[in-house]
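Service request form, structural biology core

Requester: graduate student, group of Dr. S.
Request type: structure prediction, single chain
Budget code: on file
Notes: please return the result as C-alpha cells.

Sequence provided:
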Amino acid sequence: MSDSVKLSSLIILKCGIDRRVLQKAVADFAIHVTTSVASGANQEWQIPFLLVRRIQKVLAENDINLPSSEIGQLRTFVMEFCDLIRPTIQGSGQFDYYDHEEFWDRFIGHWHKPKTLEGERLLDVALRNAHNNPITLTQDLQSPRLTELASIAYHLQLLRDDEPILLPLSLLVNLLGISKERVWSLRTKLVHIGLLVKVREHIAHSKANEYRFQLDRTDLFTVP
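Core staff response, request fulfilled:
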C-alpha cells in the first residue's frame, strides 16, 4: 500500500467523511455546550442528545447517511468529546466523563431520537419529506398546490405523533413561495374537505391555530 493510500485511510472514515471535519465539529461543540450549560441555556443531561444532533448535522452537510451498523465509526470522536469537556463539567454529578463506556451508551441510545437536525424546524423537515414522498389526493381534489400543502401537513402530523400541528401562514408563504391569501385559501379547503381539523382557535398575538391531519381519511388520499 502506498504512503498516500495509507494516509487517506487514516484521514477518511469508512462512511466517507474526513475525520478532521468531525474532530473540529466535536471540539467546537465542546466549547459551545460548556458555555450553554454554565449559563443555564442547556442542562447537562441533554448533552448526549445534543451531541448526536450536532454530529448528525455535520454528516448531513456532507451528504452522508450513516446506518446504525456503522455508528461505531464515531466512537473515537465521542471519547475525544468526553476528554474535552471533562475539565470544565466533571464533578456536577450527571455523568462520569472518565467512564467513556457510559457516555457512549447514552450517545448511541439517542441516535434515532432526533426528529430534526440542529437548527432545523419540524416544518422544514415536513417540507423536505413532502417533496420526497408526497401523498396523492383523490381525483376530484388533485391540484399541485393543494397536494403540496396536504403533503406537508401529513408529514408534519407524522413527526408530531398525536400532538396538534401548526401551519402558520407567514412561514408557509416563505416555504411555498405563494401569497398569504393563497396559503389561507388552501388551508381552509383542507379543513373544509375534512383532511384538517382545527383543534384550537387562533388567539391574537399569542397562539396560532392548531390542527390535526386526519391520517385515517384514506378515502381522500393515498400514502406514498
